[in-house]
């Protein structure tokens, strides 16, 4: 039950993050570089504050993982820049497809052999996901495609690093803080072309401090109770949650396609969960 609750909270945070990014970058209230910088910095500040309030170890800089930090930065930057040229459906398909493939390949490499029932669940979920986003998919620009693949692989590796985390809040805080050198480099390169508004800054800070920072800490807690296959598949729920978020917050309409896709994805996830064979 604890794992289910933590997983649900983190997936909701991911979906909310997608909505915030869409509002900020889609409406051009801020440029991709500034959004990335503010997102990571606000995440680091909020997480550091939470660590200071907790009774856990305060030695944040000795925790975390430099590889995870690099992947976190690469994901955030690639994601923002990819959406300059990609529409939402295309970007989501590329991102979550790359995430799922990355984590499942890792599970196979680690000799976590999947049962045929798990493979059936994976394919059902993936089919439902493709069915959901395919109507809005156009041939993606090469640069946007490459950037979103990089974002997906980076997020997959960042998630994999979380499998060994015993102190999720501290490790996530450390990972965000360790992106600061990379943030400074990005700032120096792009500061002349910076473009932002109060609305864009607010959206970036909410995205970083709440849906990214806190959301990622919860995610590191959640995956301790998930198999690697489950970790890959459950993230296909994010586009569905984002779509329903669009209905609630942006007056979008629930389509028959969304309902059918939701049933397929949830059915696939249920199959993988019931027939779990890996840790």
Write structural notes for this entry:
It is a single chain. This protein is an all-alpha fold and 279 residues long. It has one domain (2-274). The protein has 12 helices and no strands. Helix 1 packs antiparallel against helix 9, helix 3 (66-82) crosses helix 7 and helix 7 crosses helix 9 (198-222). The chain is globular, with a radius of gyration of 18 Å.
Extract low-pLDDT stretches. Answer: none
Number of domains: 1
Strand content: under 5%
- How far is it from the N-terminal to the C-terminal residue, by CA? 17 Å
Query: Mind telling me the C-alpha Rg?
Result: 18 Å
Total helical segments: 12
Structural class: mainly alpha
Summarize the structure.
With 279 residues, the protein is mainly alpha-helical. The protein is built from 12 helices and no strands.
What brief labels describe this structure?
mainly alpha; 12 helices; globular
Element layout with pairings:
Layout: H1 2-26, H2 32-53, H3 66-82, H4 88-109, H5 116-133, H6 142-161, H7 168-177, H8 180-190, H9 198-222, H10 228-234, H11 237-250, H12 256-274
Helix pairs in contact: 1-9, 1-11, 2-3, 2-7, 2-8, 2-9, 3-6, 3-7, 4-5, 4-6, 4-10, 5-12, 7-9, 10-12
């Amino acid at each position: 039950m604890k794992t289910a609750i933590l997983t649900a909270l983190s997936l909701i945070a991911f979906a909310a993050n997608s909505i915030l990014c869409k509002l900020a970058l889609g409406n051009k209230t801020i440029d991709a570089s500034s959004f990335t910088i503010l997102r990571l910095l606000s995440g680091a500040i909020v997480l550091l504050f939470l660590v200071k309030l907790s009774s856990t170890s305060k030695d944040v800089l000795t925790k975390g993982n430099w590889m995870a930090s690099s992947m976190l930065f690469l994901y955030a930057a690639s994601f923002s820049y990819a959406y300059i040229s990609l529409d939402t459906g295309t970007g989501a398909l590329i991102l979550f497809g790359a995430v799922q493939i990355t984590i499942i390949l890792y599970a196979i490499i680690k000799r976590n052999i999947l049962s045929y029932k798990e493979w059936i669940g994976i394919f059902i979920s993936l089919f439902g996901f493709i069915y959901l986003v395919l109507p809005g998919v156009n041939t993606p620009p090469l640069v946007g495609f490459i950037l979103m693949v990089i974002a997906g692989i980076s997020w997959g590796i960042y998630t994999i690093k979380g499998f060994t985390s015993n102190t999720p809040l501290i490790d996530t805080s450390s990972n965000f803080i360790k992106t600061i050198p990379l943030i400074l480099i990005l700032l120096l390169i792009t500061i002349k072309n910076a473009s932002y508004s109060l609305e864009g800054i607010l959206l970036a800070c909410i995205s970083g401090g709440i849906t990214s920072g806190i959301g990622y800490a919860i995610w590191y807690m959640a995956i301790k109770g998930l198999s690697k296959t489950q970790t890959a598949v459950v993230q296909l729920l994010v586009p569905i949650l984002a779509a329903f978020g669009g209905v609630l917050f942006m007056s979008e309409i629930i389509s028959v396609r969304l309902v059918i896709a939701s049933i397929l994805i949830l059915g696939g996830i249920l199959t993988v969960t019931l027939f779990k064979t890996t840790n």
